Amino acid sequence: MTEEVENVEYPVDAREHSPFGFSRQPLLDKCPGFLAREADDNAAAARGTRLGEQIAQWVLDGFGSGDPLPDEDAGALAYAREVLSEWKDPDYQWHAELAIYTEIQDLWGYADLVGLDRHGEKDIILVELKSGWSERPRAWRNPQVMGLALGLLETGGPPVTAILIEVDKRSYSVAMWDSSDIRRLRSTLASIIAAAREPSESALEAGAWCTWCDRHGYCPAFATAPGKALTALRRPVQPPAEWAGGLSPDLVAEILDRAKPAVELANDYLGALKARAMTLLEAGAEVPGWRIKTTAGARQWVDAEAAQDELEPILGPVIMALKSPAQIEAIARADGVKQEMATIIAQHARSTERRTLTTDRSK
Fold first, then answer.
1. Which side of the chain, N or C, has fewer Cβ within a 10 Å radius?
2. d(CA 17, CA 13)
3. pTM for this structure?
4. What is the DSSP pairing of strand 124-130 with strand 160-166?
5. How far apart are CA 136 and CA 129, in angstroms?
C-alpha cells in the first residue's frame, strides 16, 4: 500500500478528516446531505473506537485466547473473538488501522484490520468492526467495506475477503471481490461522492431515510415537523425498561427535555395515520395487516327526557344529561330499587358500538 496513488494527492495531515472517507460512505449513500449536518463526537463513537482497539490488539497479539475480558462489553468482545478465530492462519501478518487509498479523489481512510498472506498467494482479509444498533448494509453492499476493498484491489494484489462484524447484534457478513469488480466498485462509490458534493434541496430535507440515522439529535433537517415525528417513531432496538435502565440521571433529564415535544408531535402524526387507516377500511379498502375491531361500548340514553320522566317518580329529581345508564344503576342499587329501574333502563338505553383500529401483526 502506498502513501500516494497516481494523479491523486493525499495530504498526510488530513487523511483522517476526508469528508468523503470510507467510514462516511454508508452515511452519504443514504443521505447525500449528510455533510451539511453538524458534526458531533458522542459516547457511542468513543465506545466503538475502544472496542475496535481492544479487538485489534487481541489479533495482533496472535489471537491470544487467555486474555481476560473486561466486565464491560465482555459479550461483544467475546463474539468478535469467536468470529475472527475462524480466520486464524499462521501465514497471515495482521495490521491495525492500515491507511488505504483509492484512485477516486478524496476517498481514503483506515481499515480496522487487514491480514496479508506472507507469500502473497491467499486472499487479503479485510475486517471492519461495528458496534451499536444502527441499521447498516451487509458486507457485500456496504459502501465503507466496498471502498476499502477497492483500495486494496487497486494495488494489484490478490482478491479480498471482507468481514463485517456487528459486535452488539452478534452478527457478521462476508463479501469477496477480485480485480474484475474494480470498475463496478469505482462506479458505485464515485456516484455516491458526486451526489454528496452537490446535494439537491430534497437531500437536505428530513424523510423516510432519516429513520436509520443516529444523528437526529442535532441534525437541522429534524427541525421540521415530519423530521421530529420520524425521530420519535423510530423502532427501539432494546426493550424500553432495559434501555432506560442503563441511562445516567443527567442523560435521562436531557432525553426527557428533548424527546417530549417530539413524542407529542409523533402522537399527532400517529393519530392522523390511524384516522386515515380507519377511513380507508370503512370505505372497503385494504390496509395490509390492519383491521377494524368492533366491541360493545358504553350504554347511552336513546331519549334522555323520556327516561327522566319515568325515573323521577322513583329516584326523585335527576339531571339526566349528567347521568349515564350505569350511574343510574349505581343509584338504584344504593336506594334498593334496582329491579324497578332495570326495566326502565332497558327501555331507554342502548349499547353503542366501539370501533377501533387493530393489527394482527406480531409486535
1. C
2. 9
3. 0.55
4. parallel
5. 12
